[in-house]
Amino acid sequence: MLTSLQNPLVKQLRKLHRTKERREQQVFLLEGTHLIEEALLIGVSFLTVCCTEIWQAQHLELFEQLAERSDRLELVSPEVMKAIATTVEPDGIVATIEQFHTRSVEFSQLGLVLETIQDPGNLGTIIRTAAAAGVEGLWLSQDCADIENPKVLRSSAGQWFRLPMSVRSDLKTDIAIAKSKGMQIIATVPTATQTYWKIDFSKPSLILMGNEGAGLSPELLDLADVQVTIPLAEGVESLNVAIATALMLYEARRQHNQ
């Protein structure tokens, strides 16, 4: 059992709390039983799995599956578990896997684009909602919150593994290409005069959602075929971006189901 906080593995795992280290190593953390189970369901192989004796005793069948699917499996003390986890009260298991979302993502009917979404909780909630609404995939600008941030994974409630995602270096060009192929580009703008439920989502559509405070950049707004707004009661300045995204996506789904 690993009990020392000075153990090289413990030090390496603690480094993965930082975005810079995750990107350099192309490895990130999975925390908690639910995310581990979701990863197993889609056939992910684990580099390292660390769990406490109590967790092992409570999840013997899962432990045996992990023994077959991981390069290294270690029992650790509760103190070490607290050190390597990013949650205040970890449930007893932390694992590492290689960078996951590296494939390209293409759209034919409904796609979502996120520009400069900063809050990991918002990003994870959007991922969870997009998967539930049947979105084909997600493009993110490079300055969005790190999609491998532990809070993003937790907030996605396991849907992180099920939604195709791609961090794009040139969203403007990617959107322009999608537009040239017949995708309707829809931008959400507080000052727009047209409400979002008046849009024809039966057309292949790409929905653009912007930064929590600043919204979409002028460069992306210029590419929009249509700008829409979500009506708010008097005195209310804005909606949370995850809620706004949910409204847009479920209106699209409602129209598709008619």
Description:
This protein has helices at 8-15, 19-25, 33-41, 53-58, 60-69, 78-84, 120-132, 150-155, 171-180, 218-221, 241-257, and strands spanning 27-31, 46-51, 70-75, 93-98, 110-114, 138-141, 165-168, 184-188, 194-195, 205-209, 226-229. The protein is 38% helix and 20% strand. It has a 7-stranded parallel sheet, sandwiched between helices. The chain has 2 domains: 8-98, 60s Ribosomal Protein L30, Chain: A (2-Layer Sandwich), CATH 3.30.1330.30; 110-257, Alpha/beta knot, CATH 3.40.1280.10. It is elongated, with a radius of gyration of 20 Å. The protein has 258 residues and is of the alpha/beta class.
Distance between the termini: 57 Å
Structural class from helices and strands?
alpha/beta
CATH superfamily of the largest domain: SPOUT methyltransferase, trefoil knot domain
Would you tell me the overall average pLDDT? Answer: 95
Strand order of the largest sheet: 7-6-5-10-8-11-9
Number of strands: 11
**Total domain units:** 2
How many H/I helical runs? 11
Order of helices and strands: HHEHEHHEHEEHEHEHEEEHEH
What share of residues is helical? 25-40%
What's the gyration radius in Å?
Answer: 20 Å
Roughly what fraction of the amino acids lie in strands? 15-25%
Largest sheet, strands/sense/barrel:
7 strands, parallel
Can you name the CATH architecture of the largest domain?
A: 3-Layer(aba) Sandwich
* Overall 3D shape: elongated
Q: Which CATH class of the largest domain? A: Alpha Beta
- Could you name the ranges where pLDDT drops below 50 across 5 or more consecutive residues? none
Q: Report the CATH topology name of the largest domain.
A: Alpha/beta knot
